[in-house]
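Subject: design request, 313 residues
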């Protein structure tokens, strides 16, 4: 398959309307989209990404009215999250309507819904004229792509089109909050912090997987965000010694200079740069990446979640 590169949201949307799959930019990371009501197109996403079939997809919309096509059970908590954070980097999980194909939700009776705030994403989604399911546009297990070049690196020849735009502003994926039970549960941390969610629904909790129960968010089971290099986490840079083929990313400057090194001014900048730094290290034959930990509040919670998962081998 030849992958078409374009900067036109209209041209990219044409591929969706014709049953194709298209990578497009959002404020979090680039997504790989298909028409949610076209089960054959949705199947192509799983194949192109080599994504396990048990991992559900998020439906992306360009306006709030579109939610009615996906769910007729918008709970009062969900309504408050929509009012507070749509459009933006928040995914709400709702009970799905019967005509949403089960391949999109990996057999679950629920559907994740998100309205991106990035203007190019919204133009593209509006031109598609339908909710678009989209996981991150990386090969399964690899770091999520925050640039169109990284999408091309993973998916060239495997997808119909890439809508080229700026690097993603935020750099980590959306927060996923389940609104189908009495208390909203955060299934995946992201750029909307638990503190922000609680400012709208104070009883919101972080989901803790209980022993043998099936996980509420199947994606959490899978190995994720991993560069080829081995990732290790440290707190303090003082004791670091030079090692060959090693990279460093953190908020403090080590006394020595590593072959690849990124010292960020705050957690936001580090979140913005983390996945691209992982890929940059892989492109340059780096075998070990040292990540300095950050405080787990605000976006720091999501950042540490991604770093810890990348460090699990
Ligand atoms: O920022 C984002 O959310 C990006 C951009 C493209 O929008 N998308 C993204 O999708 O990160 P993906 O597929 O890489 O991650 C989706 C996560 C997975 O952990 C999945 O298990 C969870 O959301 N999820 C999706 N639908 C769900 C549902 N119905 N119930 C529980 N978890 C769900
Ligand atoms: Mg992903």
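Subject: RE: design request

Done. Sequence follows.
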């Amino acid at each position: 398959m030849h992958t078409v590169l374009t900067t036109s949201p209209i041209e990219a949307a044409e591929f969706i309307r014709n049953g194709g799959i298209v990578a497009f930019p959002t404020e979090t990371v680039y997504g790989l989209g298909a028409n949610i009501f076209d089960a054959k197109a949705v199947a192509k996403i799983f194949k192109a990404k080599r994504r396990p079939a048990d991992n559900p997809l998020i439906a992306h919309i360009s306006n709030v009215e579109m939610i009615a096509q996906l769910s007729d059970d918008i709970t009062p908590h969900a309504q408050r999250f929509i009012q507070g954070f749509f459009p933006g980097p928040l995914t709400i999980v709702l009970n799905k309507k019967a005509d949403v194909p089960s391949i999109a939700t990996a057999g679950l009776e629920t559907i994740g819904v998100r309205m991106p705030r990035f203007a190019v994403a919204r133009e593209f989604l509006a031109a598609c004229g339908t909710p678009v399911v989209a996981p991150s546009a990386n090969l399964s297990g690899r770091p999520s792509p925050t640039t169109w070049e990284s999408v091309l690196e993973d998916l060239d020849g495997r997808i119909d089109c890439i809508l080229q735009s700026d690097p993603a502003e935020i750099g980590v994926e959306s927060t996923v909050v389940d609104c189908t039970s009495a208390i909203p549960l955060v299934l995946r941390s992201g750029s909307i912090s638990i503190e922000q969610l609680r400012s709208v629904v104070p009883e919101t909790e972080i989901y803790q997987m209980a022993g043998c129960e099936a996980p509420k968010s199947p994606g959490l089971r899978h190995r994720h965000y991993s560069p080829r290099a081995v990732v290790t986490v440290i707190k303090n840079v003082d004791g670091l010694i030079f090692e060959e083929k090693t990279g460093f990313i953190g908020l403090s400057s080590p006394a020595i200079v590593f072959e690849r090194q990124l010292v960020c001014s705050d957690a936001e900048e580090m979140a913005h740069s983390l996945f691209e730094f992982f890929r940059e290290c892989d492109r340059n034959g780096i075998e070990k990446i040292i990540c300095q930990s950050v405080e787990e509040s605000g976006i720091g919670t999501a950042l540490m979640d991604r770093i810890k998962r990348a460090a699990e081998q």
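The mean pLDDT is 95.
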